[in-house]
Amino acid sequence: MAPGADEKSGRRDGTDADSLLLAQAEDRKVEDELEAAGFIKAPDGGYGWAIVAASFFANLCVDGVIFTVGTILTPLWKTKYGCGDTEVSIAFSLLAGSYLLIGPVASAFANTYGCRPVTIVGALIAFFGFVLSTASPSIYLTWIAFGLIGGIGFGLVYLPSLVIVSHYFDSKRAMATGIAVCGSGIGTIIFAWLNTVVIDIIKSMVSIETDISSIFMCFVAVVALLCVIPGVLYKPLELQKEQLDQVTKIVQDYEANQSRKNSLLSPEDGLRADGMRFDAHRPFLSTLELNAQKKGQGQQMWSQRDLAAAVAKESLAELNRPLSRADIFYPGSTAALNERSRATSNPNQHAINPIEGIGASNIFLSKIAIDQVEEYYETTKTSWHANLIHTLSSMMDVSLLKRPSFLILAFSGFLTLSCFYVPYLYLGNEMDRVGTYSDKDKSTPIKVLGIINIVARIGCGYIADRPQADALLVSSVALTLAGVSTIVVPFLTAYWQFIAYCLPFALGAACFAALRTVVCAELFGLEKLSSAFGVLLMFMGVGATVGSPIAAAISDLTGSFDFSFYVMGALMALSGIILFPLRRLAVRENEKEEKEMAALENNDL
């Protein structure tokens, strides 16, 4: 080729590159405007406080039942069904385990149908399971009715109650979430007292021992049914007409400008309405354009305001689903998370920055939302279950298991939940070893666990919004101390010592429960938080399912719960110890990923 031709080709390539950069800059500007206008803003107050109160009540009922009914029902069911501690413990472990294992499914339902209907249905399912258990002729049917069905129902109440608070609050989220989850501690206190009152009333009215548990389960069923009330109050946030008008105008102006310039973008640069792929870097524009294409409309439709508004409304509804926000499971503000990432990273290492590339609206689309929209537009038809299945598969992103740091965190969650419910169920048995105590006396440590849980949850809310506080270190230390103190339980010889034991154990349990999503966001990034939380729930659910039966089986073999507390305490201490090197390991993994990506980019050049 002649030198002159080469020179012209070089100038043309340079001009094309400049045009491409200008087009990308314009797209970014419009995308920022669409984010600012199109995301439904959290009101940070107003009706949101009614949502907080409703979530508080839901947590009060659900955790109040899960944490306290075991001490009442265990001796009653052993008498009624003529079985041992192991068989009875399976019913409670299934309740606690399925409550967690159903979490990703509950999230998928909430994302597809909304928090209100899912919570109401969950309350009705739990009510049905508990009522069914009153007529159960065997412990095996009780496993299904009380444990499995009741746990699934409670799980469908729990996750939407967590999500809805985050939807209504952003800058005040730490305070709102802290108040809502304090319902767990308040519920433990109330039901530890109320259960003994109810059972005393039942015993005074009923002389047949086997009927006492059935009547008590009717009381538990009514408590579950009360969770319909917060479900009714979970009003979804609505897109305002002003927002819709603003988004429609922004896109109309953008498309008119594109038509005038008659610009063409390369496939790797973005998606035009004539049939390229979804671009995660411009999700609003891509979604709007693809929605138009999906309806058989072209770029010309944006000049027709009614059609444009209809497409914009459908697109914004898709992008404003509950799990579309990457920070939906984060208990504090994303601004605090950004500062925390820098504050807790070693200055000599690469920072783990989970919220790099923040948009104008300061709100992220989660990986679930981006993948879901992309898949939605790759298919010619959609069905009610398509979004459900996709959300579930995204929350169960098993690729995270390829990271050793996540495997360690998940295994820690499994170990923690294996021990989590053991003191609630069997601390009373250890108290019988040192003296004769009434049900009321045995309920006092459970109340203390609830009180400390409240204080610790408030403290963890403070930590979540304080960048200088190391959430991973706090969790590690708290879990280790909780485990060591549990090992010491068989050596306790006085009532006050059992009360004192509640302090370290409740602190460890509360720190783990309140800070787990903070740790996930720090280590694996905000965009992977929903997926990490979903997989973590599965590990925790399995731990909750097997932990109590193992402790009971050890007791059946040895004749006391001493060795059960040794084993479970050691497992909980181990769950904290293995977390200490986790941050350094995660940083190394991120450095390795950065080097691999850099190498791939160099190979492409």
From TrEMBL:
MF terms from GO for this chain are: monocarboxylic acid transmembrane transporter activity
Subcellular localization, per the record? Membrane
Q: Which GO terms describe its biological process?
A: monocarboxylic acid transport
CDD domains in alphabetical order: MFS_MCT_SLC16
Q: What is its main location?
A: membrane
GO CC annotation, single: plasma membrane
Q: What is this protein called?
A: Mct-3
Q: Which species?
A: Pristionchus pacificus (Parasitic nematode worm)
Q: According to the entry, what is the taxonomic lineage of the organism?
A: Eukaryota, Metazoa, Ecdysozoa, Nematoda, Chromadorea
Q: Which gene encodes it?
A: WBGene00095461
